[in-house]
Write a structure and sequence with these properties.
By secondary structure, this protein is α/β, with parallel strands linked by helices. It has three domains: about 15-90, no CATH class; about 115-255, TPP-binding domain (Rossmann fold, 3-Layer(aba) Sandwich), CATH 3.40.50; about 260-455, 3-Layer(aba) Sandwich (Rossmann fold). It has helices at about 15-25, 40-45, 60-70, 85-90, 115-125, 140-150, 185-195, 235-255, 260-270, 285-290, 310-320, 335-340, 345-350, 365-375, 400-405, 420-425; strands at about 30, 50-55, 130-135, 155-160, 175-180, 195-200, 210-215, 230, 275-280, 300, 330-335, 355-360, 410, 430-435. The strands form three sheets. Strands 5-4-3-6-7-8 form a six-stranded parallel β-sheet, sandwiched between helices. The longest helix has 20 residues, at about 235-255. It is elongated, with a radius of gyration of 38 Å. This is Acetolactate synthase. One of its GO terms (cellular component) is acetolactate synthase complex.
Length: about 450
């Protein structure tokens, strides 16, 4: 547009716009007049060729539409601008116009599908650098959000409107604070480097990682960036669903059976493979041979072909006396074998020998159970060594034997607590007994049957 020239050529901008419309063949304009568009309406009136249609008949529909949008999905205020001339028009209202707005729903979404939630949890478990990005849609779900973060350990960043959804305390290492142009550098860096972005209660933006988008308004999902997984849901209900699943998984993990092999691997790790290991005879003996890595002669003391049950405890006493400067001496024993020489606990106390007893207790003669399972159709006669009148109660209580001899003992039943229990055993001065409850169904594998060959090995 020319801004300078003779007065004859200069024209008002609104007149130029209307003239441009005329040159394009426009003869009718549908528009609401308002303060910001008044000059255009004046120019339309002066032109004489373009008719402005004021759709006053739309008032019922527009009001209905406004309330529909206000109460659908993401709740909020709606502005209806009704010009003065529309207010004065005489019309015949149509109150029954259909309401069809793409992306809006007339009722709030219900609880999200559990399968979809589990799909997202699976993505989280596969990711190495997930980041949680939350907006104002989470303001009423702060408690659920905090629990979700506690269960997943995912770092949290927020939009400007999401500040306060998650505590921004400097002592919380998971709080990345605000993201964006004036957000923290570490929040922007974390999102840039993440491999999974969990966008809850906000509009997403162009990113290169996988995106999970949850929002109460379906019109917001995919608005700026198509997510890999999306759920239209009340974020509070979604977080409650997540937390229910994650809590169940956590409890299952906490109360999971302890694989005896795992306990030995943890012992090997915490002792740096530097312990003198003694054993009795049975499954525990074979697992100790398989899963503890031996690097020095006479680090491994067992009865070998003699098959002497009860060998582990007196062998550990002898090792502790012979090697008083040994960093660790540990008797890895089974409950059946341990009972054969349990009276030596008194010797251990009298001599105040600083070795440890790690008992793999399955309340059975484990190797006999395995042989009967494999070759006698699981006819486990006379293999249970607990209390036949109360099989749920641990019997005998090995920790009581140790305590009666004046040294500490503990029991662990859950896999999650194994590492801490073994560390405490190793760190406690003097003798210590750790009773680790393991499943009696576990078998030592691989196994070549008696009189069998390599080709006959049992591996599962």
């Amino acid at each position: 547009m020319l801004q300078f020239g003779s007065d004859e050529l200069r024209r008002q901008g609104s007149d130029v716009l209307v003239e441009a419309l005329k040159r394009e063949g426009v003869r009718t304009v549908f528009a609401y007049p308002g303060a910001s568009s008044m000059e255009i309406h004046q120019s339309i009136s002066r032109s004489g060729l373009i008719t402005n249609v004021l759709p006053h008949h739309d008032i019922p529909h527009i009001v209905k539409e406004a309330f529909f949008v206000a109460k659908s999905g993401r709740l909020g205020p709606i502005l209806i601008d009704v010009p003065k001339d529309i207010q004065k028009k005489m019309v015949v209202p149509d109150w029954n116009q259909p309401m069809q707005l793409g992306g809006y729903i007339s009722t709030l979404p219900g609880p999200p599908n559990e399968t979809r939630l589990k799909e997202i949890i699976a993505l989280i478990s596969l990711s190495t650098k997930p980041v949680l990005y939350v907006g104002g849609g989470c303001l009423n779900s702060s408690a659920e959000l905090r629990r979700f973060v506690d269960l997943t350990g995912i770092s949290v960043t927020t939009t400007l409107m999401g500040l306060g959804c998650y505590p921004g305390s400097d002592v919380d290492e998971l709080a990345l604070k605000m993201l964006g142009m004036h957000g923290t550098m570490y929040a922007n860096y974390a999102v840039d480097m993440s491999d999974l972005l969990l966008a809850f209660g906000l509009e997403t933006f162009a990113t290169r990682e996988k995106i999970v988008h949850i929002d109460i308004g379906s019109s917001e999902i995919g608005k700026n960036k198509k997510p890999h997984v999306s759920i239209c849901a009340n974020i509070k209900l979604a977080l409650q669903g997540f937390n229910k699943i994650l809590n169940a998984e956590k409890q299952a993990k906490i109360h999971a059976d302890i694989p005896p092999q795992y306990a030995i691997e943890v012992l090997e790790e915490l002792t740096n493979g530097d312990a003198i290991i003694t054993t009795g005879v049975g499954q525990h003996q074979m697992w100790a041979a398989q899963f503890y890595k031996y690097n020095m002669p006479r680090q491994w003391l067992t009865s070998g072909g003699f098959g002497a049950m009860g060998f582990g405890l007196p062998a550990a006493i002898r090792a502790a006396l012979a090697r008083p400067n040994a960093r660790y001496v540990v008797d890895i024993d089974g409950d059946g074998s341990f009972l054969m020489n349990i009276q030596e606990l008194a010797t251990l106390r009298v001599q105040n020998l600083p070795f440890k007893i790690m008992l793999l207790n399955n309340q059975h003669l484990g190797m006999v159970v395995q042989l009967k399972d494999r070759f006698n159709k699981s006819n486990r006669a006379d293999t249970f060594i607990g209390n036949p009148t109360n099989k749920l109660k641990i019997f005998p209580d090995m920790t009581k034997f140790a305590e009666s001899c004046g040294f500490p003992a503990a029991r662990v039943k859950d896999k999650e607590n194994v590492r801490g229990a073994i560390k405490k055993m190793l760190d406690t001065p003097g003798p210590y007994l750790l009773d680790i409850m393991v499943p009696h169904e576990e078998h030592v594998l691989p196994m070549i049957p008696s009189y069998g060959a390599f080709e006959d090995a049992i591996n599962e």
